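From: lab user (bench 3)
To: helpdesk
Subject: output format question, protein + zinc ion

Hello, I'm new to running complex predictions and I'm not sure whether the block I got back is the full result or only part of it. Here's what I submitted:
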Amino acid sequence: MTASAQAPNTQLPASSANLDTSHKVSIALDQRGYDILIGPGLLDEPATWLGLPKAQVAVIVTNETVAPLYLERLSHQLRAHYTRVEAVVLPDGEAYKDWASLNKIFDHLLAQACDRKTVLFALGGGVIGDMTGFAASVYMRGVPFVQVPTTLLAQVDSSVGGKTAINHPLGKNMIGAFYQPERVVADLDGLDSLPPRELSAGLAEVIKYGPIADAEFLAWIEDHLDALLARDKAAMAYAVKRCCEIKAWVVGQDEREQGLRAILNFGHTFGHAIETGLGYGEWLHGEAVGCGMVMASDLSVRLGLMPAEFLPRMHRLIERAGLPVLGPALGIERYLELMRVDKKAESGEIRFVLIEGLGRATMRAAPDPLVAEVIQSHCR
Ligand SMILES: NC(=O)c1ccc[n+]([C@@H]2O[C@H](COP(=O)([O-])OP(=O)(O)OC[C@H]3O[C@@H](n4cnc5c(N)ncnc54)[C@H](O)[C@@H]3O)[C@@H](O)[C@H]2O)c1
Ligand SMILES: O=C(O)C(=O)C[C@@H](O)[C@H](O)[C@H](O)COP(=O)(O)O
Ligand SMILES: [Zn+2]
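Helpdesk reply: Thanks, we reran it on our side. This is the complete output you should expect:
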């Protein structure tokens, strides 16, 4: 099966970079569409929080790193709308994206007698967003939740589209649900406190959107990478907006990944193998995806889908973004074993998202010996 980005009658809406720093992107999903608010100062702006579901109780889920930075400011805004504003503060890290953390959320909700109108707020990066969304999807069979992403990766990708999950020791994001938020609030000022390594991890997912859907955006990223690394507000605002536009366009057509949505997994088949193979947390998700995109670009070239120049182009961009381009030495057999657990695999056959023309992705199986050559070429 192929998942072409060029679905009939559904052209990706055009976008143009300008100096604006505030944007609104809407995601269209039958009755369940929502807005993605992007801009500086949104957290402290009372208008940001108008029109959310009415309830007595709001519960903010966050972690030990983000809480001291932003919890009180969000709580202050929410007290204007909810009688009780509570917080669950989880340990920080990908290693804690697990059942134990999920249970801590449920323990709090039940101990505080939170009813089915309770609104959950995910304040943090993708780990908090994925876990809070999953908790919201199953608590009392579903309560509303709002994404307040504070990392670049979460603002451009994980907060949008409704994939929620926890990890399993045998596979990344293996336990989860599709469940959409009520709203996404991406305050660009939050990115000022992000460590450089996390900024680079977010840039991996930014880069991803170019080759899979928008060749012009890829060229824009190449031209503006230094501005993005310097956290220039206008460049950052445009990058977040364009990524959200592309993701909204994809998810609006294929919410549950029956085909097209798989293009968002470019670099992830190799990347998830790295994350799971090392045990979660040694490599950041974005780092694994960056390296995985180098491997998937090479495979695209080796299969004759892309000209040879594509690999050095991607390699250079990913390296310039501060991301690793050589994978860990897990061993070829171990890589293959891990990739067979990927959600896109069918009957044990690994399927890769590959590029078949700039801005167009496809999903294909590939012969094991060719995949082995790719791994051999891009591992320590
Ligand atoms: N649901 C999806 O569609 C989707 C998409 C992409 C990634 N993901 C998932 O997202 C996760 C990765 O997300 P991530 O990269 O945001 O990692 P993360 O959530 O672990 O956050 C990265 C680090 O930054 C810290 N942090 C967060 N905001 C901060 C801020 N403003 N200032 C300073 N520090 C801050 C966090 O505490 C953490 O230490 C992975 O689990 C991945 O599987 C999901
Ligand atoms: O939203 C999607 O669809 C994606 O694939 C986005 C990815 O960046 C993200 O890492 C996602 O969680 C991976 O999905 P999975 O289904 O492979 O776990
Ligand atoms: Zn990802």
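A quick orientation on your result: Residues 62 and 311 are 38 Å apart (CA to CA). Let us know if anything else is unclear.
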